[in-house]
Design brief:
alpha/beta, Rossmann fold, 2 domains, 17 helices
């Protein structure tokens, strides 16, 4: 099949949407599909364009059998509000000529990755012009999350923007999301059941557990062998509720047998470092190369997954897959009844979101019980192997793509 992937994030970004879109593109290309990715220069999560790339230029390259077309964009050093919207708009506009050029080659499917939803109107229009199927894959309900987290406010604005989003989503032949609760939200927004696809994020479990001795982070950071190590590795942005990590480390400041590794990049990293500046048991690392990630995950005795209240069923943290594949327990801040809580409850401990004292109590209990840690870690690994392994997930995706053989709009009832 001829497949166009359209989204702002792509490889070589190491975290979040870019990692998964790059993995998907390479996997499909290896299966013999003709894959083109329309994307931007890599900039996330540091919010600066990586060396070797230019923010202001178009570029093309071949990467693992994928044709990668990069459009220029503006990257604000400190995203937020109007700056973030302008950032997304520059990519939506600059990528339009690339999308139209790809449409002329008559692909079978144009898949747009949300966020950003800004790219969706052009993707639908291009698909209709060239007779391709339009597929929306939702990694993050950015509009709902923006209102839940207070980044956007006002009932009138929420009704207006939400109505536009629902109208746009119904134009797609397929809509996929990464969790069952997020799929239920798409259903609530009026998407026909026949159009919905569950497409979770994945992890190469074998690779995640290989090379764990490549880097000895305990030696590198001066952490005693008998200390319990709690690790957070991922984006350091506004959605993660990183204040909880700082408060947690402060609460346990008199426990020299418990150390913390906070690894990642993002616009909230500096604030987190300032709050932890006087805490000797807290260690910061920049975003680590992919080949060192297994060693970092293996260093953890416990993984930490803070989350802001209200966001748990609007996003499914992509970092969770690596945590589970490492075979270590997770302490997660998530409201009871959310899908995130249901998943982690099988292989970790759930605490109230943004409650550092509850997280501290959970960490102390796990630190004092190696047997409990081992049992939960084994459950995490079993879940990852059964539900999240790369071939398991992407085989199902390929089957869904191959099923799109009828002309667009005929396999399911056309959206009204």
């Amino acid at each position: 099949m001829k497949i166009v992937l359209y989204g702002i994030n792509f490889a070589p970004e190491l975290t979040g949407t870019g990692k998964y879109t790059g993995d998907m593109a390479a996997w499909l290309a290896a299966r013999g599909h003709q894959v083109t990715a329309i994307t931007a220069p890599p900039y996330y999560p540091q919010w600066r364009v990586q060396p070797g790339y230019r923010a202001g230029r178009y570029a093309a390259q071949s990467w693992q059998g994928v044709k990668v077309l990069r459009a220029p964009l503006w990257v604000p050093p400190k995203p937020g509000g109007a700056k973030r919207l302008l950032h997304l708009a520059t990519f939506a506009l600059s990528s339009l000529p690339l999308l139209l050029a790809c449409a002329l080659r008559r692909p079978d499917v144009i898949m747009v990755i949300e966020p950003p939803l800004f790219c969706a109107p052009a993707a639908v229009a291009a698909a209709r012009l060239c007779g391709a199927h339009a597929w929306l894959h939702i990694q993050d309900y950015e509009i709902d999350a923006a209102f839940e987290l207070g980044l956007l406010k006002g009932r009138r604005l929420q009704r207006l923007v939400g109505g536009m989003e629902r109208w746009l989503m119904r134009r797609f032949d397929r809509v996929s999301t990464i969790s069952a609760r997020m799929l239920a939200l798409a259903r609530h927004k009026g998407i026909d059941e026949a159009r919905l696809v569950l497409f979770p994020n994945w992890i190469d479990v074998d690779a995640a557990r290989a090379g764990g001795a490549a880097v000895d982070y305990r030696v590198q950071l001066g952490i005693p062998r008998d200390a319990t190590v709690a690790v957070y590795s991922g984006n350091m942005g506004g959605k993660q509720g990183l204040e909880t990590l700082a408060d947690l480390a402060y609460i346990l400041r008199r426990r020299p047998d418990i150390h913390f590794i906070f690894c990642g990049e993002g616009h909230q990293r500096e604030a987190l470092q300032r709050r932890c500046a006087d805490l000797s048991q807290v260690h910061f690392l920049p975003l680590q190369p992919a080949e060192h990630l297994p060693a970092l995950l293996a260093t953890a005795d416990v993984h930490l997954l803070p989350q802001r209240a209200g966001a748990a069923d609007l996003v499914m943290p992509s970092k969770l897959t690596g945590m589970l594949a490492s075979g270590k327990p997770v302490i997660c801040g998530a409201a009871p009844g959310t899908e995130l809580a249901q998943v982690v409850a099988q292989c970790g401990v759930i605490v109230q979101p943004e409650n550092p004292r509850a997280m501290a109590r959970a960490l102390l209990r796990l630190a004092g019980s190696p047997a409990r840690r081992a049992a939960l870690g084994s459950a995490a690994l079993r879940y990852a192997k059964a539900q999240l392994h790369t071939d398991t997930v992407l085989d199902r995706l390929e089957q869904q793509l191959m099923a799109l053989r009828a002309p667009p709009g005929t396999a399911v009832q056309k959206a009204q």
